[in-house]
Amino acid sequence: MENYKNESMVDVAFSVLTDAGSTVKFKDLYNSVCEKLELSEEERADRISNFYTNLSLDGRFVTLGENEWDLRSRQKYEKVHIDMNDVYSDIDNETTGNMDLEEYSDEERESEGIEVDEEEADDSIDYDKSREDL
After folding, report:
1. Strand order in 61-63's β-sheet?
2. What domains can you pick out in the chain, each with its CATH number?
3. What is the pTM (predicted TM-score) of this model?
4. How confident is the model at residue 94 (pLDDT cuts 50, 70, 90)?
5. Helix, strand, coil: what percent of the chain each, to 5?
6. Taking the CA atoms of the chain, what radius of gyration do you get in angstroms?
7. What does the pLDDT read at residue 100?
8. 67 and 27 in contact (C-beta within 8 Å)?
9. Integer angstrom CA distances of residue 109 from 4, 99, 114, 121
10. Element (H, E) at 35
Protein backbone atom coordinates (compact mmCIF):
# COMPACT_ATOMS: atom_id res chain seq x y z
CA MET A 1 0.00 0.00 0.00
CA GLU A 2 1.30 3.43 -0.98
CA ASN A 3 1.79 6.21 1.53
CA TYR A 4 -0.60 9.04 0.64
CA LYS A 5 -0.09 11.11 3.80
CA ASN A 6 1.70 13.95 2.01
CA GLU A 7 -0.70 14.17 -0.93
CA SER A 8 -3.73 16.39 -1.35
CA MET A 9 -7.17 14.83 -1.40
CA VAL A 10 -7.64 15.58 -5.11
CA ASP A 11 -4.27 14.02 -5.95
CA VAL A 12 -5.34 10.88 -4.09
CA ALA A 13 -8.67 11.02 -5.94
CA PHE A 14 -6.74 11.15 -9.20
CA SER A 15 -4.88 7.97 -8.17
CA VAL A 16 -8.13 6.26 -7.15
CA LEU A 17 -9.83 7.07 -10.45
CA THR A 18 -6.75 6.06 -12.44
CA ASP A 19 -6.66 2.70 -10.67
CA ALA A 20 -10.42 2.22 -11.05
CA GLY A 21 -10.24 2.61 -14.80
CA SER A 22 -13.85 3.80 -15.01
CA THR A 23 -16.36 6.16 -13.43
CA VAL A 24 -16.83 6.17 -9.65
CA LYS A 25 -19.70 7.47 -7.53
CA PHE A 26 -18.72 10.49 -5.45
CA LYS A 27 -19.48 8.68 -2.17
CA ASP A 28 -17.23 5.75 -3.11
CA LEU A 29 -14.49 8.08 -4.34
CA TYR A 30 -14.60 10.11 -1.14
CA ASN A 31 -14.56 7.01 1.04
CA SER A 32 -11.56 5.61 -0.86
CA VAL A 33 -9.68 8.88 -0.53
CA CYS A 34 -10.44 9.07 3.19
CA GLU A 35 -9.30 5.48 3.72
CA LYS A 36 -6.02 6.08 1.89
CA LEU A 37 -5.40 9.23 3.95
CA GLU A 38 -6.51 7.42 7.12
CA LEU A 39 -8.90 10.21 8.11
CA SER A 40 -11.00 9.98 11.25
CA GLU A 41 -14.80 10.23 11.07
CA GLU A 42 -14.59 13.82 12.31
CA GLU A 43 -12.01 14.73 9.65
CA ARG A 44 -14.18 13.07 7.00
CA ALA A 45 -17.19 15.14 8.02
CA ASP A 46 -15.16 18.36 8.13
CA ARG A 47 -13.51 17.93 4.72
CA ILE A 48 -16.25 16.64 2.43
CA SER A 49 -17.47 20.03 1.18
CA ASN A 50 -13.96 21.30 0.47
CA PHE A 51 -13.15 18.05 -1.31
CA TYR A 52 -16.23 18.34 -3.52
CA THR A 53 -15.41 21.97 -4.35
CA ASN A 54 -11.78 21.18 -5.14
CA LEU A 55 -12.78 18.18 -7.25
CA SER A 56 -15.23 20.35 -9.19
CA LEU A 57 -12.64 23.05 -9.82
CA ASP A 58 -9.78 20.72 -10.75
CA GLY A 59 -9.68 20.39 -14.53
CA ARG A 60 -8.54 16.76 -14.37
CA PHE A 61 -11.97 15.60 -13.20
CA VAL A 62 -15.43 15.68 -14.69
CA THR A 63 -18.85 14.85 -13.35
CA LEU A 64 -21.01 12.85 -15.73
CA GLY A 65 -24.32 13.25 -13.96
CA GLU A 66 -25.88 10.97 -11.37
CA ASN A 67 -22.87 11.92 -9.17
CA GLU A 68 -20.54 9.81 -11.30
CA TRP A 69 -16.99 11.15 -11.59
CA ASP A 70 -14.21 10.30 -13.99
CA LEU A 71 -10.98 11.65 -15.34
CA ARG A 72 -11.58 14.21 -18.05
CA SER A 73 -8.84 12.61 -20.14
CA ARG A 74 -10.91 9.43 -20.50
CA GLN A 75 -14.03 11.18 -21.75
CA LYS A 76 -14.78 12.38 -25.27
CA TYR A 77 -14.78 16.13 -25.70
CA GLU A 78 -18.40 16.16 -26.89
CA LYS A 79 -19.56 14.42 -23.71
CA VAL A 80 -17.96 16.84 -21.24
CA HIS A 81 -17.78 20.12 -23.15
CA ILE A 82 -20.17 22.84 -22.03
CA ASP A 83 -20.96 25.44 -24.67
CA MET A 84 -20.80 28.69 -22.72
CA ASN A 85 -23.07 30.37 -25.28
CA ASP A 86 -25.83 28.03 -24.12
CA VAL A 87 -25.13 28.91 -20.49
CA TYR A 88 -25.23 32.64 -21.15
CA SER A 89 -28.40 32.43 -23.24
CA ASP A 90 -30.05 30.47 -20.40
CA ILE A 91 -29.03 33.20 -17.96
CA ASP A 92 -30.40 35.87 -20.28
CA ASN A 93 -33.68 33.97 -20.55
CA GLU A 94 -33.93 33.59 -16.77
CA THR A 95 -33.32 37.27 -16.10
CA THR A 96 -35.81 38.55 -18.65
CA GLY A 97 -38.62 40.13 -16.73
CA ASN A 98 -36.60 40.42 -13.52
CA MET A 99 -35.86 44.10 -13.98
CA ASP A 100 -37.63 46.91 -12.24
CA LEU A 101 -39.32 49.31 -14.62
CA GLU A 102 -36.84 52.00 -13.61
CA GLU A 103 -34.03 49.88 -15.05
CA TYR A 104 -35.48 49.99 -18.55
CA SER A 105 -34.58 52.80 -20.93
CA ASP A 106 -37.40 54.39 -22.88
CA GLU A 107 -36.30 52.45 -25.98
CA GLU A 108 -36.32 49.14 -24.07
CA ARG A 109 -39.76 49.87 -22.64
CA GLU A 110 -41.05 50.61 -26.12
CA SER A 111 -39.50 47.48 -27.66
CA GLU A 112 -40.86 45.32 -24.81
CA GLY A 113 -44.31 46.91 -25.11
CA ILE A 114 -44.22 48.23 -21.53
CA GLU A 115 -46.54 51.14 -20.93
CA VAL A 116 -45.43 53.82 -18.54
CA ASP A 117 -47.94 55.30 -16.17
CA GLU A 118 -47.65 59.10 -16.49
CA GLU A 119 -47.80 59.49 -12.70
CA GLU A 120 -44.96 56.93 -12.33
CA ALA A 121 -42.88 58.78 -14.93
CA ASP A 122 -43.18 62.03 -12.95
CA ASP A 123 -42.01 60.29 -9.76
CA SER A 124 -38.91 58.79 -11.33
CA ILE A 125 -35.54 60.15 -10.33
CA ASP A 126 -32.90 61.03 -12.86
CA TYR A 127 -29.85 59.89 -10.91
CA ASP A 128 -27.40 61.30 -13.42
CA LYS A 129 -29.07 64.71 -13.14
CA SER A 130 -29.10 64.61 -9.33
CA ARG A 131 -25.35 63.81 -9.25
CA GLU A 132 -24.65 66.91 -11.31
CA ASP A 133 -26.29 68.99 -8.58
CA LEU A 134 -23.79 67.73 -6.00
Report:
1. 24-25, 68-71, 61-63
2. 9-75 (1.10.10.1250)
3. 0.58
4. low
5. 60, 5, 30
6. 26
7. 61
8. yes
9. 61, 11, 5, 12
10. helix 26-37
